[in-house]
Amino acid sequence: MTQAGHLRPDPSRRIVLGVGGGIAAYKACEVLRRLVEAGHQVRVVPTESALRFVGAPTWEALSGLLVHHDVFGDVPEVPHVRLGQTADLVLVAPATADLLARAAHGRAEDLLGAILLTARCPVLLVPAMHTEMWEHPATVHNVAVLRSRGTLVARPASGRLTGADSGAGRLPEPAEIVDLATLLLRRADALPPDLTDRHVVVSAGGTREPLDPVRYLGNRSSGRQGYALARVAAQRGARVTLVAAHTPALADPAGVEVVRVGTAGQLQEAVLTATPRADAVVMAAAVADFRPADPHPSKIKKVGSDPDPVSLVVNPDIVAELVRRRPRGQVVVGFAAETGDATGDVLTHGRAKLARKGCDLLVVNAVGEGGAFEAEHNSGWLLGDDGAETELPEGPKSLLAAYVWDAVAARLKR
Ligand code: CTP
């Protein structure tokens, strides 16, 4: 039995938030607010052109710290060296095409450039620019150079850009940026490019089985764990298909194709359509085991009728079908939300489920008493069909996702 880590939540870390000169700079205010609310000390370092979009007083009010952008401010404190050396994380959002170019060349004519050269902590650049600029060979080259040096360059989102155009190059949502930053503070090595050129399918959320046009049998799954899996896989380089059942509260993760479904039958169809050539499939969705045998075509009325008992039929077991159909080398990961009972504890039930389902890996979460459902944090065990058992430390759902992808990537390498 191995321990995946003994990391404890560390509420206050030193973050440098670099801000490039793009219109998305206004979204960095929200990133800053969330990081400060989480208890971190965030020093904002805008470029000169970023200050034309959002002024220093805004950054100073939100961070509670003075803002400099050139290397000649606050000289006795030598911030151009000290800020990079002492940071736990350098996050740049938005990173413009120009900023990526300067970083790739190691330019240090402003404070942010100097910080990027002195930082020894994880550095995450979150690009935002027009699609043409993102796809230009110069930018593609700069991103490759930066990544080859270990700098993390996030995948941008697709969607509406400034003005009427849309495409790849949009800044990911502030919540997503903060989630990636939080993940790196917990595990500096959580986003290696080990899923590059892989296609992975993730299911998320909870299915709803209609009783009539307005009522359904459902469950409490929010979809957060599946979305975290999709987000982390995309940032580790994978092409990701996310099959999402009822996740209205969640924004699409950057760089992920989202297929929306309602019932277990629809989820089954979407997953089976996406997986024949996929490298891995992770079934994080809570799939209803049963569905009403005869959903009413019209709303069931209360007046003048005694309620009919609802008869149920069994839904297909999708994970079992995936295991039956899987091509050679495809990694199948199941989830098991368990409560202990008289017949065994959570792990005993998990081990039995892994054997019953025949998947390669099974994530076991303890549920009830506030665990797993709707929560921001998760913990559990990762069981392998080779007998490996790894404890997954309590932390954000993206941290659990990182451990799952570690295990998947290790199997894909074999
Ligand atoms: N699952 C599935 N198809 C179903 C039900 C569940 O593919 N009809 C998947 C889930 O997505 C999850 C795994 O199977 O990855 C385990 O789900 P769970 O509900 O715990 O499994 P069950 O076989 O229904 O076991 P239990 O009797 O404990 O409910």
Rg of Cα set = 23 Å
Number of strands: 20
Distance between the termini: 21 Å
- CATH fourth-tier homologous superfamily of the largest domain: CoaB-like
CATH topology of the largest domain: Rossmann fold
In percent, how helical is the residue content? Answer: 25-40%
**What is the count of helical runs?**
14
**How many structural domains can be distinguished in the coordinates?**
2
Order of strands side by side in the largest beta sheet?
A: 1-20-19-18-17-14-9-12-13
Q: How much strand?
A: 25-35%
Name of the CATH architecture of the largest domain: 3-Layer(aba) Sandwich
Low-pLDDT segments: 1-9
- Main sheet specs: 9 strands, mixed
Write up this protein:
- With 414 residues, the chain is α/β, with parallel strands linked by helices.
- It has helices spanning 25-37, 50-53, 56-63, 79-86, 97-104, 111-118, 131-135, 137-148, 174-186, 224-235, 264-274, 318-325, 346-357, 397-413; strands spanning 2-3, 14-19, 41-46, 89-95, 123-127, 152-153, 157-160, 166-170, 199-205, 209-212, 215-217, 239-245, 256-261, 280-283, 290-292, 312-314, 331-338, 361-366, 377-384, 389-396.
- The chain has 2 domains: 2-186, Flavin prenyltransferase-like (Rossmann fold); 199-412, Rossmann fold.
- The strands form 5 sheets. A 9-stranded mixed beta sheet has the order 1-20-19-18-17-14-9-12-13, with helices on both faces. Strands 3-2-4-5-6 form a 5-stranded parallel beta sheet, sandwiched between helices.
- The radius of gyration is 23 Å and the shape is elongated.
- Cytidine-5'-triphosphate binds next to helix 12 and strand 17.
